[in-house]
Write a structure and sequence with these properties.
The chain has 542 residues and is of the alpha+beta class. It contains 16 helices and 25 strands. A seven-stranded mixed sheet has the order 8-9-10-1-11-21-12. A five-stranded mixed sheet has the order 18-17-19-13-20. A four-stranded antiparallel sheet has the order 4-5-7-6, covered by helices on one side. Strand 17 (393-398), helix 12 (404-416) and strand 18 form a beta-alpha-beta unit. The chain is globular. It starts with a helix and ends with a strand.
Length: 542
């Protein structure tokens, strides 16, 4: 295997799904097909060894039913299986814990036929009653599972007429539900875990899945260790082998500083690191390391606006920021060709994506005209626009350490047109507390999901509303797309919603999120799942 081959595939990986993402419900079938993951490996896979991974951040809760943090979802994917899987190249749904499924004509009833022989790592049997218990448990978590409860919104019943059959019913059409059952959020936990207090699962204690690895230990903001489960034999059709995972164990080490992660990789202390700065890629490749990356579907890197803050009450300010950022300069200066600028409310690897680039076009004169038309004047001392003595300025909560240069350049761009930006850098765990308290103006983050319903889950002000979006006509649009009777109806409503999101400055998209992973050439079988998070079942060390 050559570095150049893998580098090329890494940069093109986000293109694979675009052609397939023109329909909202992928074909459902149960016949076996060849569908490998996005990783590759030369030679005969070898069992054994510990994969040492360096991650830039951590968060507070490992329970996949509760967390929305991408790092912890990546960890959860290694020990939690889902009812169905999604091929990262074709975006088709594939059998996993369910060997087949069907939906009625109105997408209000979904019937799953489960495979035999699946057990959890504590020996408990997986069957229809366990699926019922999982879905009912997630729905009962409320605010503790903002993603899960939104995915199950409107669920009226879960029935288990026999051990192999589950019937999930909704009061209204639920176009995103099949996709939801492929996520870690709706993944299956053992009955023993479901009977525990939710807060007790966050540190990994008692967190039991049916996946190829088990949780060995966890220390928040330091490390999480998974070990191989022997006897695993129910992998999905998307992966490249059956039976036990190859690796004996996986160590996820939290190393916030990018330079320390890179140094640990080059010294051999780590095998893989995330958050590789694009400007470091040439040097790493020249040193023999491999770079992998795939654009995350869902909401790209955006500024989420806390609409409870006065600065965002005026649409002129929101719209001025929207067109006052030169996204192409950000990419040309900091990311070269690795990361594309955002083209709309969704990343272009997301089902239902539409190109809204024209609405995001850089127009500094237009931004200043918007502010002046709304009664703002530019102060001589600070150079910022102000009204009634209050300057146009806001803070940005930044917990992706490798994104700091992006926000600093954005800060300069907005200062040039009279808008002030204060950067508040902190860890992922610290940002969780700040977000919950509402002590912020903007949050710089992304949300990963292959289905466009992520817009409803995050932006509907009548839901969990984690970023404090303001009530508006957008709520009705987002709710309507989720219950649309046909794909065409849903697409039309989504376009209307996305145009509103960009046109009204509900969020400020910056760039598609591409997490660049640098690794030793000894790492083989590296793969992404459809949500662009790691799947390490096929991974081995040469």
């Amino acid at each position: 295997m050559t570095t150049s081959h893998r580098k090329r595939r890494a940069r093109l990986a986000g293109v694979f799904v675009t052609a397939a993402a023109t329909t909202f419900v992928a074909a459902c079938g149960s016949s076996p097909t060849d569908s490998g993951g996005s990783g590759s490996g030369d030679g005969t896979p070898q069992s054994g060894g510990t994969l040492r991974i360096g991650l830039s951040s951590d968060s507070s809760c490992l329970d996949p039913h509760q967390t929305g943090n991408s790092t912890l979802i990546t960890m959860g994917r290694q020990f939690v299986d889902s009812l169905i899987d999604q091929d990262p190249e074709t975006m088709e749904f594939k059998p996993w814990l369910a060997e087949s499924w069907k939906a009625n004509d109105t997408n209000t009833e979904f019937t799953f036929t489960l495979r035999d022989g699946v057990t959890f790592s504590n020996g408990e049997t997986f069957d229809a009653s366990v699926v019922k218990a999982n879905f009912e448990s997630i729905a009962g978590l409320g605010a503790l599972s903002s993603l899960g409860t939104a995915m199950l919104n409107g669920m009226s019943s879960v029935e288990a007429p026999d051990p192999k059959t589950v019937v999930v019913s909704f009061a209204e059409p639920n176009a995103q539900f099949l996709n939801a059952t492929s996520t870690v959020t709706l993944g299956m936990l053992a009955p023993e875990s479901l009977s525990a207090a939710p807060e007790s699962l966050c540190d990994g204690t008692g967190l039991i899945g049916s996946g190829p690895f088990v949780v060995e230990s966890r220390t928040q903001d330091a490390s999480t260790v998974l070990t191989k489960r022997t006897g695993y034999d129910w992998a999905s059709e998307v992966v490249n082998h059956t039976g036990d995972a190859y690796l004996d164990s996986i160590e996820f080490n939290i190393v916030p500083e990018s330079s320390v992660r890179s140094g640990s990789l080059m010294s051999g202390e780590l095998d893989i690191i995330d958050g590789t700065a694009p400007q470091d890629v040439p040097n790493l490749e020249a040193s023999g390391f491999v770079i992998e990356g795939r654009a995350n579907p869902g909401i790209p890197m955006v500024l989420f606006l806390n609409r409870e803050k006065a600065v965002w009450q005026d649409p002129a300010v929101r719209k001025a920021v929207q067109i006052g950022i030169d996204r192409q300069q950000l990419m040309d200066t900091l990311f070269t060709d690795v990361t594309p600028p955002a083209k709309g409310a969704l990343a272009d690897t997301t089902t239902g994506f539409i190109d809204q680039s024209e609405m995001l076009a850089y127009d500094p004169d237009g931004a200043k005209a918007l502010l002046e038309g709304a009664g703002y004047t530019r102060a001589g001392g600070t150079g910022l626009y102000e009204k009634n003595g209050v300057p146009v300025s806001f803070d940005v909560i930044q917990f992706y350490a490798n994104e700091t240069p992006t926000i600093e350049l954005m800060q300069q761009q907005l200062a040039d047109i009279g808008i002030g930006v204060e950067i508040r850098a902190m860890s992922g765990t610290e940002s969780d507390a700040v977000e919950a308290a509402g002590d912020w103006d903007t949050m710089y983050a992304n949300w990963t999901r292959t289905d466009p319903d992520i817009l409803r889950i995050i932006l509907d002000s009548t839901g969990e509303n984690p970023y404090r979006n303001a009530p508006s006509e957008l709520d009705a649009m987002l709710q309507a797309q989720a219950v649309a009777p046909t794909e065409d109806d849903r697409a039309a409503i989504l376009k209307q919603a996305m145009d509103y999101i960009i046109g009204e400055g509900v969020i400020i998209p910056i760039h598609d999120f591409v997490n660049l992973w640098a690794m030793s050439e000894s790492v083989q079988g590296f793969a992404f799942e459809a949500g662009s998070r790691l799947r390490l079942y096929d991974t081995w060390l040469s």
